[in-house]
């Protein structure tokens, strides 16, 4: 794999895009691994009782799935030195068809002096943006 440097990237460069397919089984595995057993992530009945359309993916699962495109681009999860987002929508996960999280990322800023690149992510599900101001800062070699 070619190692990128800040001199090789420019604002607006495409980092990549991907579609992450989530199923109810993924939600169960995530709940078990994270300890987040909130029933809105497992029961349509409970989710609907609190005004949701049905079971939704965990926010942290959505956030983690989205940043994968950045990790694939830079080649090292340890190079991601900061990552944050605002949750702007839910990812409803249908019992039969699951859900597709569509993620794209572009270079939003380059700080050659610091050796970092800010990557701006867009994440949507069913045409609705689910993450807002999703940004990862990646440290690249000099």
TrEMBL record:
A GO BP entry is: fatty acid biosynthetic process
Q: Which residues form the MaoC-like domain?
A: 12-121
Give the signal peptide, or none.
none
Cellular component, GO, one term: fatty acid synthase complex
One Pfam annotation reads MaoC_dehydratas
The record's annotation in PANTHER family points to: (3R)-HYDROXYACYL-ACP DEHYDRATASE SUBUNIT HADB, 3-HYDROXYACYL-THIOESTER DEHYDRATASE HTDX-RELATED
Query: Could you tell me what this protein is called?
Result: Acyl dehydratase
Which family does the similarity line name?
Belongs to the enoyl-CoA hydratase/isomerase family.
Q: Which domain of life is it from?
A: Bacteria
GO MF terms, alphabetically ordered: fatty acid synthase activity
């Amino acid at each position: 794999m070619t190692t990128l440097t800040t001199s090789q990237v420019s604002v607006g460069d495409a980092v990549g895009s991907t579609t992450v397919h989530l199923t109810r089984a993924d939600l169960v595995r995530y709940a078990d691994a994270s300890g987040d057993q909130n029933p809105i992530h497992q029961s349509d009945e409970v989710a609907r009782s609190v005004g949701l359309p049905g079971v939704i993916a965990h926010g942290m699962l959505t956030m983690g799935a989205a940043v994968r495109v950045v990790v694939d681009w830079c080649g090292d999860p340890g190079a991601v030195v900061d990552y944050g987002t605002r949750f702007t929508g839910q990812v409803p996960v249908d019992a039969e068809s699951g859900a597709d999280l569509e993620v794209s990322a572009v270079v939003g800023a380059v700080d050659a002096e610091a050796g970092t690149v800010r990557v701006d992510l867009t994440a949507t599900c069913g045409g609705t943006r689910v993450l807002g101001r999703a940004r990862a800062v990646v440290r690249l070699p000099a």
